[in-house]
Specification:
This protein is mostly beta strands. The chain has strands at about 5-15, 25-30, 45, 55, 60-65, 70-75, 85-90. The strands form two sheets. A four-stranded antiparallel β-sheet has the order 4-3-6-7, with no helix packed on it. A three-stranded antiparallel β-sheet has the order 1-2-5, with no helix packed on it. Strand 1 (about 5-15) and strand 2 form a beta hairpin. The chain is elongated. The chain starts with 5 loop residues before the first strand and ends with a strand.
C-alpha cells in the first residue's frame, strides 16, 4: 500500500502578550503534499509539550493554544498519509 505524503504549513507562531510567564499558540494548515488540498481530521501534536493534540477542521486548519515559550517539533498525522514533521518551531 502506498502512502500519500502529508505536509503542513505553520502559519503563525506567536506569543499572546509580552508579559513574563505567558504562553503562545501555534496555528497552521495541514494539506496533501501533491494536490495541496486541505486535510480535515488530521491529528497535530507538539512533541515535548504536555498539551492535548489538535484536530484539523474542515479546511485543514488547527490551533494549539497555551504553548509555553520554547522550540518545538510539530507533527501532523492522518491515516493513509506519512507523518509530517516541522522541527525547531519557535514560540516566544
Amino acid at each position: 500500500m502506498s502512502r500519500t505524503k502529508l505536509y503542513f504549513c505553520l502559519l503563525l507562531l506567536s506569543a499572546g502578550c509580552a508579559w513574563a510567564g505567558t504562553t503562545g499558540s501555534i496555528k497552521g494548515t495541514v494539506r496533501d503534499a501533491a494536490t495541496k488540498a486541505p486535510i480535515p481530521g488530521a491529528i497535530v501534536t507538539i512533541a515535548g509539550a504536555p498539551l492535548p493534540a489538535a484536530v484539523t477542521d474542515s479546511e485543514g486548519r488547527f490551533v494549539v493554544a497555551g504553548v509555553p515559550p520554547g522550540t518545538y517539533t510539530v507533527e501532523a498525522s492522518m491515516v493513509g498519509y506519512t507523518t509530517a514533521k516541522s522541527e525547531n518551531e519557535l514560540v516566544i
